[in-house]
Amino acid sequence: MSAITVPPSSDRASTWDRVRTYRPPNRYLPIIATAALFLGLFGVGGMRYDGLTDPQVLMSLLIDNAFLIVLGVGMTFVILTGGIDLSVGSVVALSTMIAAKTLELGWSPYASMAAVLATGTLLGLLMGLLIHYFDIQPFIATLAGLFLARGITYLISVESISIKDPTFTELAFRTVYIGDYYIRWTAIIALATVAVAAYVLARTRFGRTVYAIGGNEASAMLMGLRVAATKVGVYVISGFCAALAGLLFSLYILSGNSLHAIGMELDAIAAVVIGGTLLTGGRGYVLGSLLGVLVLGIIKTLISFDGTLSSYWIRIITGVLLLAFVIVQRFATRRRA
Amino acid sequence: MTQMRTQPETVSPPGAETQPVIEMRDISITFGAVRALDGVSVRLFPGEVHALMGENGAGKSTLIKALTGVYTIDSGVITIGGEQHEFHSPAASQAAGISTVYQEVNLVPNLTVAENMLLGREPRRFGSINVREMNRRARRTLLHLGIDIDPRTVLDEHPIAVQQLVAIARAVDVEAKVLILDEPTSSLDADEVEKLFTVMRRLRDEGVAIVFVSHFLDQIYEIADRMTILRNGRLVEERMVADTTQLELVRLMIGRELEVLDRLDRAAPQTDAGSGTPLLKAVGLGRKNTLEATDLELFEGEVVGIAGLLGSGRTELARLLFGADTADSGELAVRSHRRRLRSPRHAIDRNIAFSSEDRKAEGVVGDLTVADNMLLALQASRGWLRPIPQATRTRLVKDYIEALDIRPADPNALMRNLSGGNQQKVLLARWLITEPEILILDEPTRGIDIGAKAQIQAKVAELAAQGLSVVFISAELEEVLRLSDRLVVMRDRRKIHEQTNDDVSVRDVLEIIAGEAREGETRA
C-alpha cells in the first residue's frame, strides 16, 4: 500500500500516480512473496493461537534455526552459480563429531572450533576443485562429499559423544537481552553471516561474478571474469558455512553424533528455493534464504502450537510450498523471456 | 555535435597518408589436413567500416578468431600500429585494443545494463563496488553512443537489439581501436538495424576501425566503406564498396565452379507447374524475424530448387515446411488438407522428410552404427512399441548401402568414422527408408567430395523421375540449376523470384540475387 515514502514534490498528481502505480522490480518479486508468506503465516497463527504474537516467538525462531540459516547462506552462493551442494548435512554431522571428539580428547575449545572450520572448508575446496577442473557435475561431486563426510563421522565414533566443555555450554546458553526479550549468540552469529554474505554478493567483484556465472558461464568467461576461482570459491564458502552451521548445531544440541543432521542439506535447499533463488542460478538473495528458513521454522512452530497435528505435516507442507514456489518462479521467468 | 554523414568521407586509399591500424599479412591457419586460411591479407584503417564477405566456409570466422586470439596463426604477420603482435589468448587481443561482439549476445542476462558493461572492471571504493559511480559511467557511455536506456535496468528486460548495443557499449568502454561485429544483425528487425548503424557510424567518425560481418548485402552497401572478399580460405580481393556492384560482389563470393561434374541427363520437366493439385502448398508462410510471408507450391515428381545466399531465408523456409520451426503466419496444405506442422513429428506423419544443412549437429549420431543411423527415422515414425523385424532391417540397410554406394559397405561401421560424403548418403538413406512423398534437402552436398556429390545428385534426379517431390536447397547454383524443374530465388528472408527452369543460366540467377539486371562484362 502506501508504505513507500515519497520525497515532497511540486507536482502532487504525478507523485500520487507514482505511488499508486508503483511496482517493485521483477527481481524482487520472489523475495516479497516469501516475506508476505511469512507475515501471513505469522498473522494467521497469531489469530488462532494465543502467545504466538509474542515477539519472543520470533526470537526463538532465529535461535532454533540458526544453523539452518548459516547452511542456507552457503547454499545460496552455490545455487546462484547454478550448482548444488548435497554434502552440507553430512558436514554438519562431521563437525559436531569433530567438536565432541576433540573436546573429549582434551583440546582447547578454540582449537576444536578451528579444526571444525578447517575441515569443512577443506572439504568444500576439494569438491570445488573436482567440479571445476575435472568438470564433474556438482550433484555427483557433492554426493561423493556427502558419503565421505558421513563415513568419516562414523569412523570417528558410532556412539554419541556429549559435549560438556564449559566454554561451549557457556556459549550455548548465554543470552543477550533486547528489552524484555532474549536472543542467543548462535542467532547473532547466524544473522551476522547473512549480513556479511549479503554485502559480499552485492558489493564485491567476487559476488557479481557469482551472479554472472549463474547467468551465463560462457559469457562470463569471454568477459574475462575469474570464473575458475569464483566457482571453486563458492564451494569453499559453502563448506565453511556447513562447518560453522555444524558448530552452531553442536551448541544447540551439545553432542556429537553420526546420526545428526540426516537430510539437513535438503532443508537448506528447500529454504533457499522458497526464499526465491532460482535453481538454475543467477537470481536470488541471501535475505530470501533467511526468510525461507523462517517460513519453514514458523510452519514447525505452528504445528507444535496446534498440538493435534503430527510432525509429518511439516514435511508435507514444506513439499507443497516448495512445489508452489518453483512453479511461480517458472512463470515469472517465462514471462521475461 | 556529430553532423550527419552524407557521403562516406573518402576512405584513405591504401598506402596514403593514413596508416592501417591493423595489418594482417599472409595469414595461414591449418586444422589437421584442412587449410582454413591460406595466405590471407587484410588491412583495417581507422575510421572505416570494413566488411568481411564470403559464403560459409570461406574463412571469415577463422580470420576473426585469429585476430581475437582464439586461434593461433601458423604463419603470417599481424601488425598493430606498425608493431608486430602475436596473440595467444583473447585477453592479449583485448589488451591490444581489439574488442569483439559476437552474433549471440555474450552478456549476462540477470544483471543490470551497467553491471554488464563494467563487469570485471567496476569502479571500487575501499574494495567495495561503487554502484553510483558505476551507473554514472555506464550512463555516460550509453549517452555518448546515443543509446537511451536506464543503466540500472536488468539486461533481459530489453530486446535482443538493445542487448546487442549494450554489448557494443561494453566493447567501447575499454576504448577499443578495433571493433569486430560478427553478424550482429542476424536477429534484428529493420528499425533495430538502423539503431545499430547509427551507433556504428558514430564510432567510425571517432576513428574506430569496425569489422562488420553480415549476410545481408543491402546492409553491407548501406554501412560499409571497404570490403575484403574471401572464398575457400583464400583472399579473393579487397574492394571499395562504392566501386563494386552487387552483381560483381556476388560473383566474387560464389566464384566459378570449375570442377567438371558428370553432366546429368536431366529429364525434361515432368510436370507443367500449375496443373493439377499441388502436393504441398504454402500460402503466406512466415515467421517473425526469420522469413517474410512466402508462397510455395510443390507438385508430384517435381524438383523445386531454392537458390539464394546464406541468410537469404532458404534454410528458414525449409525448417518451416518441416515444422522444425513453427510458422506464425500463413497456411500450409499437404494434399489440399490444411496442416499445422507443430513439430517434425507431424511432418513425418504427413510423409515429409527433411535433411538438415547442419549434418554434424542435426543429423549424424556419430556413436551409432551406419545401420542404426539409417533406421532412426523409420523406427521413430513406427513408434518404439513396434520394432522393425531383424530381417527387414538387414535387407533395408543392405539395399541402401548398395543403392547409394556407401563406403565402407559395412552396416556395423561407426558413423563418425565415415567421410562427410558417405555420412550424407546415410542421412539420405535414413529418409528414403521412410518412403516419403516430399523430400526436403538442405545443402545435401556441402563439404563433400565430387564423386559423392555426383552420386547424390544422380539419386535425387532418379527419385524425382519415380514420382518423389523434392525441395532442393544449395549454395551451389550450378547444382540447383542442374537438378530442378522449377527455380525459386530468395534474398533477405523473402522469395524474390520464381520461374520454370528452362535454360536459366548461373549468370541469370546471380543477377536476380544481386537485384539488378545491369549490363556488366560478359565473361561467363
UniProtKB/TrEMBL annotation, chain A:
Predominant cellular place of this UniProt entry's protein: membrane
Compartments in which it is found: Cell membrane
Membrane topology: Multi-pass membrane protein
Name of the molecule in the record: Sugar ABC transporter permease YjfF
Transmembrane domains' residue ranges: 28-47, 67-98, 110-133, 139-161, 182-202, 232-253, 259-279, 286-305, 311-332
Pfam families: BPD_transp_2 (PF02653)
Record flagged with keyword Cell membrane: yes
NCBIfam families, sorted: PRK11618.1
InterPro entries the UniProt entry points to: ABC_transp_permease (IPR001851)
Cell membrane is among the record's keywords: yes
